[in-house]
Amino acid sequence: MMKGKIVRISGPVVEANLPDARLYDVVKVGEERLLGEIIKIVGEISVIQVYEDTSGLKPGEPVDSTGAPLSVELGPGLLQSIYDGIQRPLKVIEEQAGGVYITRGIEAPALDQKKKWDFKATAKKGDKVKKGDILGTVQETELIEHRIMSPYEGKIESISSGKYTVSEKIGEISFEGKKYPLKLAQKWFVRKSRPVVEKFPPNIPLITGQRIIDTFFPIAKGGTAAIPGPFGSGKTVTQQSLAKYSDTQIVIYVGCGERGNEMTEVLKEFPELEDPNTGKPLMQRTVLIANTSNMPVAAREASIYTGVTIAEYFRDMGYDVALMADSTSRWAEAMREIGGRLEEMPGEEGYPAYLARRLAEFYERAGRVRCLGTEDRYGSVTIIGAVSPPGGDISEPVSQNTLRVTKVFLALDAPLAYRRHFPAINWLKSYTLYSNSLEEYFAKEVSSEFTKLSKAAMELLQKEAELQEVVQLVGPDALPEKEQAILMVTKMLREDYLQQNAFVDYDARCELIKQYNMLKTIMKFGENTNSALDLGVQLKKIQELPVKTKIGRMKELLEIKDFEKLHKEIDGNFEELR
Amino acid sequence: MKEYKTITQIAGPLVFVSDVSGVSYNEIVEIMIPGGERRKGQVLDVSNKNAVVQVFGGTDGISTSQTSVRFLGETMRLGLSTDMLGRVFNGLGEPRDKGPKIIPKEKVDITGLPINPYSRQSPNEFIQTGISTVDCMNTLVRGQKLPIFSGAGLPHNQLTVQIARQAKVRGTDEKFAVVFAAIGITHEEASFFMRDFEKTGALENAVLFLNLADDPSVERIITPRLALTTAEYLAYEQDMHVLTLITDMTNYCEALREISSARQEVPGRRGYPGYMYTDLSTIYERAGRVRGSNGSVTQIPVLTMPGDDKTHPIADLTGYITEGQILLSRELHRKNIYPPVDVLPSLSRLMNAGIGEERTREDHKGVSDQLYAGYANGRDLRSLSAVVGEEALSPVDRKFLKLADQFEARFVRQGAYENRTIEQTLELAWDLLSILPEDELKRVKKSYIDKYLPKKKEEKKE
């Protein structure tokens, strides 16, 4: 272990005399042994970002290098955990600190070292295995089977089922005459992506249960999405809805520079929420990483990497994983803050010049892949990143660099939020680049009409924006009845379709088939209106139809047959008008 | 104790001391000026040889040859005791009234440690402020941080005082305290607060920290932290419910910028330092409730937005940390409406946890959403009718217009001493909603309409 001494302290950045140090190695700083990482080397001086508060450190105090880069521990026990940005379990920190505050210098193993897991070996002695081959399984929670993958290539010398802790030997593997022990847990460097055999184009949608997303701006499994919006526009609620209701098997939620009270809400809610598919607590498939805004800034920088590495690990087992990062702007600001302390030449708006590269590298860790190993195994990591642009103006560097690499853009809008139109996703500004590759899936799984209907509805909404400009000048009554009818239908689309209440049980998650039926209802009403107008019926009469009020409450309908009844009623209502 | 006479440079609020050893980061220093005056400071940057010290009392009179600097070997601490209630302190925590010195029960580092998110309890107790726009539309709960975004010349002080006077959790009689931090406000404003606290008898349950406009600006970095350290002590050690009022955060940010520029740091937006978000979070995040204590810290910071600009870095970064904001509008103020709360851009993120059947009333959420949607629509129509005339609007639209007008005149407007219960507020809300046709009330459950809409109620009676 290399030893050195502190020569300078400036906020979270410490300089130490540490010859032969390697970039990105983890170091222990000062008498209190605070955790840090080497981020720059000038001659014999190493510049260290420290993950804890540096008050009270003195020049001359010792610095020891651990000789290894920042890594996460991967193995059974990850699920249901709540970590800080450098994978210290917050629960253990509470016990060690003996209070509600995070004191300094606490070291805590990421995985429970005492718990015995029931390991069922599937590989046998004498098997030749490749990296990533599955050695056996552990039923980690009722929902998720944890597949133990071989970190090495070689021949299995011994392996046996039984009860083990994460650090006990479950067997042995030999490669080129050398023997290595096999364990339930392994380590991986957070800044390096885990390897895969091949990446595939994403063609399966991530069903989120959110109407505006699934119908108009679908996200693909293994895809990337950005959610920018000013404060108060509902980024966090959207992220949380996606985490709760998406049809992925694993959710990694990174609260990067989040509010403490909001994180507590997540911590309280997730164990109580049921997985819509199985009825078991959602927490059983979730890993939470909470690095609130007032926790050390360097750990905030690391939290995103910690999260994505854990996500990749579960992907390698063959699972579909969704990573929610809230918010990537805070992550970028952490880089800016540390860059500033290093006195680096700043790029745009003070952000470091490597901002674009770092963002691209992060989002590039998403994807639908064939996992490492002999057998055919597919998994995916979907990354959904919130962006918090200053003043809601997305011309700033973090938003712009994010948009260059992500494929779905969900633009949150303050005016919509003000009128409590949630989710406040602006349908005119948002886009998805996955619609073509997902069309086939929707045609097969929902209805061949689904994509057609959604396109027609979007056209109407766009037409509405044009008409609104005219209305602003001459008033709505000056429009011909046909155009007024469009405004009527788009109002129904906005209020009865796009708006979705995350806080009531019948509307929080909307199945694809219900989405299709709801959309069909409104479009059917629109078509009937058009033909009725052609026959000379007054628009006012149509607006007073009793079925219109019923459509306004169709979110509460649960069964398909209810919708069929509603469709008949629409036909009946218009029949009477003629 | 180490004493140095090696000041090499004085720049703005900073003093550079050379040839030091054994100095620690964030350590407190005492600066002795010829003539016997002593000032306090804090180490901002330290290396093998040099230390950069920020001086709290201003750097005037300091010289490179005559002044000596003494490093005290500890970080900034505040002595705490319940005797602080009813007392007034200056921006550095020294008594400002004529009372005796506080004998501390314990001394605590004022930077505060981050609260473990796992150890927090989620805030969900409804605080009734008696102000309709807050209670119904932007509900405050215990442990929340809800800032008031104001502008120069708007009545934010009156509103803050009214909230401090009226705020209570209904049906409880728990220990309650107010911690008040004045940052760079004028003498006149400070005495407005003091007078009101005295008049209502709130002063005996209050701790006041005053850094006034003519006090040294660097002290402003310390003042809110003293207040919050006191608040945390009263809340988590003494099980009190503490309402912390901090005004004006804009002055705090100006002080932060001043120090950053004196250190010649790379500036972020509008010259404010790049770490302002992190710095502000170490103030705002010191609110909440924690496990193992019955107390709570609720924070209401006030900031005046330069040029009424919500996207100015101070307001912007605050909004990203706090759990919502109450925005005051110049337009409403001009219409002589008090409190001029513009509900549309205002928000309380913890509202849903604090309202509903067992906390306020079952229909609260729906009523509030419906009023938001209706008022937003009415405001849009107002600008439309300015162009095309009210006659060109449809009958339904005219009703929305009426709703918006009545909403401002009857719901937003209330007296500075008018304390409405949540029931009164909700009654008023239903009264306004009855202006609209019933099929427009999509945000409220049908059963609540039948139960609460005035028309329906009367029908039932008959």
Number of domains of chain A: 4
* Secondary-structure-derived class of chain B: alpha/beta
Rg of chain B, rounded, reads 25 Å
Unreliable residue runs of chain A = none
Helix count of chain A equals 17
Report the top-level CATH class of the largest domain in chain B. Answer: Alpha Beta
- Determine the fraction of residues in helical runs of chain A and give it as a percent range: 25-40%
Q: Give the uncertain stretches of chain B in residue-range form.
A: none
Q: What kind of oligomer do you see?
A: heterodimer
Overview of the molecule:
- The complex is a heterodimer of chains A (about 575) and B (about 450).
- In chain A, about 35% of the residues lie in helices and about 25% in strands.
- With about 575 residues, chain A is of the alpha+beta class.
- Chain A folds into four domains: about 1-70, Beta Barrel (Elongation Factor Tu (Ef-tu), domain 3), CATH 2.40.30.20; about 115-185, RNA polymerase II/Efflux pump adaptor protein, barrel-sandwich hybrid domain (OB fold (Dihydrolipoamide Acetyltransferase, E2P), Beta Barrel), CATH 2.40.50; about 200-430, 3-Layer(aba) Sandwich (Rossmann fold); about 450-575, Orthogonal Bundle (Bovine Mitochondrial F1-ATPase, ATP Synthase Beta Chain, Chain D, domain3).
- In chain A, the strands form six sheets. In chain A, strands 8, 18, 21, 22, 23, 24, 25, 26, 27 and 28 form a ten-stranded mixed β-sheet that branches. Chain A has a six-stranded antiparallel beta barrel with strand order 1-2-5-4-3-6. A four-stranded antiparallel β-sheet of chain A has the order 12-11-9-14, with no helix packed on it.
- In chain A, strand 15 and strand 16 (about 180-185) form a beta hairpin.
- The termini of chain A are far apart.
- The mean pLDDT of chain A is about 90.
- With about 450 residues, chain B is α/β, with parallel strands linked by helices.
- Chain B folds into three domains: about 5-75, Thrombin, subunit H (Beta Barrel), CATH 2.40.10; about 80-355, 3-Layer(aba) Sandwich (Rossmann fold), CATH 3.40.50.12240; about 365-460, no CATH class.
- In chain B, a hairpin with a 2-residue loop joins strand 2 and strand 3 (about 15).
- The radius of gyration of chain B is 25 Å and the shape is elongated.
- Chain B starts with a strand and ends with a helix.
- Chains A and B meet through strand 1, helix 1, helix 4, helix 6 and helix 9 of A and strand 5, strand 11, helix 6, helix 7 and helix 10 of B.
